[in-house]
Design a protein that fits this description.
Length: 286
């Protein structure tokens, strides 16, 4: 991710050399004159890391100026919000800045690229930033891909994560679920089932490949005879029993009944999953 991120910060902030020249115009601003930008894609800041940076700033000061732009009666942060937050924690009254005259779109591009280069965004923050660039500034996924140095498919896959349930997006934000795992759930049409499968993936620590198999089993086309089957009281009862069994065993279960006979089919997606199910079944034998 860190290599060749599109135009990069250098192109958007007049190149590394220009930035070096701009150090001659570094000035001090009062911390309370500066505010975070609404264009900042990063929403979550690790408090422990902020406190560690604040301690470093107490000892060594703010080594690298933050970049701001003038907006009304205050200055909005273009790059360096984490340093600004840590400086506030450290009790500083002023902070070194470089003032830039740039557009809102450029602010967002710079903030997005800076965070991607430092790998500071969680998958949902990243997806929301792409979506905002596309919708608010009327640019294509292809153009976003060029800005950040990724493929158009990578941008499309990222934005699709926003179609998932709020519960899954929270799992992505706090790191319980990776974007690779979450992408396997995008094609599941039922939001409640999405949540159930996400919990299974997390609880069973499934790999992405195992998660793909789990999701694929949900999307298998029903046989024509199954589609035509009338919804009866018995079929509703069977569906309820399947739900109870799936909740108890943490995997997909089919209960197939034919008159007074039938079978219960447990699905598993790895040897560990099979061993777990067998152990649970044996433990229930009296």
């Amino acid at each position: 991710m860190k290599k060749g991120l599109g135009r990069g910060l250098e192109a958007l902030i007049s190149s590394a050399n220009a930035l070096e020249d701009a150090r001659n115009s570094v000035m001090e601003l009062k911390i309370n004159q500066i505010e975070p930008s609404s264009e900042q894609p990063r929403k979550v800041f690790d408090q422990e890391k902020l406190e560690a940076l604040a301690e470093s700033i107490k000892n060594h000061g703010v080594v690298q100026p933050i970049i701001v732009r003038s907006e009304g009666n205050c200055y909005k942060i273009v790059a360096g919000e984490r340093r600004w937050r840590a400086a506030k924690l450290a009790g500083l009254k002023t902070i070194p800045v470089i003032i830039k005259d740039i557009t809102s779109r450029e602010v967002m591009e710079i903030a997005l690229i800076e965070n991607l280069q430092r790998e500071d965004l969680n998958p949902i923050e990243e997806a929301e930033a792409y979506k905002k660039l596309i919708e608010e500034y009327s640019i294509t996924q292809e153009e976003v891909a060029k800005i950040v140095g990724k493929s158009r498919a990578a941008i499309a896959n990222s934005v699709r994560l926003l179609t998932l349930t709020d519960e899954i997006k929270e799992m992505l934000s706090d790191g319980r679920l990776t974007s690779g795992h979450a992408r396997t759930l995008v094609a599941i049409p039922d939001p409640e089932r999405q949540n159930q499968l996400a919990k299974i993936i997390v609880e069973r620590n499934l790999s992405v490949r195992e998660s793909e198999k789990l999701a694929a089993s949900e999307n298998k086309p029903k046989k024509k005879t199954e589609k035509r089957k009338a919804i009866t009281k018995e079929s509703i009862e069977i569906a309820e029993l399947e739900e109870k069994l799936m909740a108890a065993y943490g995997t997909k279960i089919n209960l197939i009944k034919n008159k007074e006979k039938g079978k219960i089919v447990f699905e598993f997606y790895s040897k560990d999953e099979l061993d777990r199910i067998v152990e649970m079944l044996l433990n229930n034998v009296k």
